């Protein structure tokens, strides 16, 4: 697997969002532990903020998402992807990776597709409980498909036969934050976040829900909430007027530590969020992002809800009254939170990064 006595190189293809970059980052750390070198190949947009990625080199190739019904837009996207494949071929030729591993999203299509054309081993990791479009496109061509969940929707029987569940790799900061659940004794720490596409609805729904609680219930709450800068003022005003201790910010760099300090999390249900909640072992009310083509967040939330670690509320049902009712019931019966925390923890796969690293190295040799 190695060339000229040098440690083998694994090329990770990830980009677009943190949801794809986080598991790739976790895998990179695990591969280093196996004495393997890592290169990252990504799109030009992600290359700008992937500077701290643990890789010996970072390479940007053109990528585009073929969405929309306009034939012109589709043709343009196809052309950009073709340019990406040609650029990826050059990078693969130069770096000679033992395997190329894709993490979904269209930025991973050019490198993984190029690898399969060149006869270089390739595989993909699917974080969600429904396979995404990019991975579905590549699934028939790759040697192996690693999955975050035991069951993944949208696969053909032949593609399902290539699947191995490894879990969703989480960053070292998440492993470090995993700790026993702090049973809520009187006070309840509530953490609210929604990612770039979900913070607005949290600002619209959570503060009015808190207003509907009784003064006694509100007195027990301490709230940490992610809110966009344009929503910060109105969210802060409501909590301050109610006398609630709160911390509002557009972004939390130490989110895993914030999760660990919370008694309950209200969030979207991206694959990374669900994996982190499980590994750290915290109960949650999950509101899947609506409108996505694959409904992947709803599928992710459903898995954790079936395990007993979360409650899923569809956005169409996510009203101040509904949320206030759920919070009130949990405040009245905190033992339910402890049971949910235990259920979430039992669904977690803390060594997912190492499991994936072993599968990557095994696939590279076959």
Name of the top-level CATH class of the largest domain: Alpha Beta
User: What is the makeup of the main sheet?
Assistant: 7 strands, parallel
Q: Could you list the spans in which at least 5 consecutive residues all have pLDDT below 50?
A: none
Total beta-strand segments: 13
The CATH homologous superfamily of the largest domain is called Glycogen Phosphorylase B
The average pLDDT value, as a whole number, equals 92
User: Mind telling me which CATH architecture of the largest domain this is?
Assistant: 3-Layer(aba) Sandwich
CATH topology of the largest domain: Rossmann fold
What order do the helices and strands follow? EHEHEHEHEHEHEHEHHEHEHEHEHEHHH
Shape: elongated
- What portion of residues belong to β-strands? 15-25%
Strand order of the biggest β-sheet: 3-2-1-4-5-6-7
Give the structural class: alpha/beta
End-to-end separation: 10 Å
Helix content: 40-55%
């Amino acid at each position: 697997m190695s060339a000229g006595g040098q440690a083998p190189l694994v090329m990770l293809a990830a980009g677009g969002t943190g949801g794809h970059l986080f598991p790739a980052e976790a895998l990179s750390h695990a591969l280093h532990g196996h004495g393997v070198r890592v290169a990252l190949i990504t799109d030009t947009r992600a290359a700008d903020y992937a500077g701290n990625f643990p890789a010996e080199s970072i390479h940007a190739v053109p990528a585009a998402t073929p969405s929309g019904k306009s034939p012109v837009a589709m043709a343009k996207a196809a052309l950009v992807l073709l340019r990406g494949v040609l650029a990826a071929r050059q990078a693969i030729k130069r770096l000679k990776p033992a395997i190329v591993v894709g993490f979904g999203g269209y930025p991973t299509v050019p490198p993984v597709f190029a690898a399969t054309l060149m006869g270089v081993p390739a595989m993909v990791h699917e974080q969600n409980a429904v396979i995404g479009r990019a991975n579905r496109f590549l699934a028939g061509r790759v040697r192996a498909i690693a999955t975050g969940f035991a069951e993944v929707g949208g696969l053909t029987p032949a593609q399902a036969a290539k699947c191995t569940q490894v879990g969703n790799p989480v960053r070292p900061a998440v492993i470090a934050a995993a700790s026993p659940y702090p049973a809520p004794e009187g006070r309840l720490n509530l953490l609210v976040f929604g990612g770039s596409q979900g913070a607005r609805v949290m600002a619209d729904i959570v503060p009015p829900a808190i207003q509907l609680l009784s003064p006694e219930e509100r007195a027990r709450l301490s709230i940490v909430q992610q809110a966009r800068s344009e929503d910060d003022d109105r969210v802060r005003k409501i909590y301050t007027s109610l006398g609630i201790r709160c911390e509002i910010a557009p972004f939390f760099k130490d989110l895993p530590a914030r999760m660990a300090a919370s008694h309950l999390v209200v969030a979207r249900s991206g694959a990374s969020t669900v994996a982190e909640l499980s590994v750290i072992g915290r109960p949650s009310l999950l509101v899947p992002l609506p409108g996505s083509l694959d409904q992947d967040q709803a599928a992710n939330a459903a898995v954790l809800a079936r395990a007993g670690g979360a409650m899923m509320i569809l956005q169409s049902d996510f009203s101040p009254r509904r949320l206030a009712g759920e919070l009130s019931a949990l405040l009245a019966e905190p033992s339910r939170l402890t049971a949910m925390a235990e259920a979430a923890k039992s669904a977690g796969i803390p060594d997912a990064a190492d499991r994936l690293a072993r599968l990557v190295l095994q696939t590279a040799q076959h």
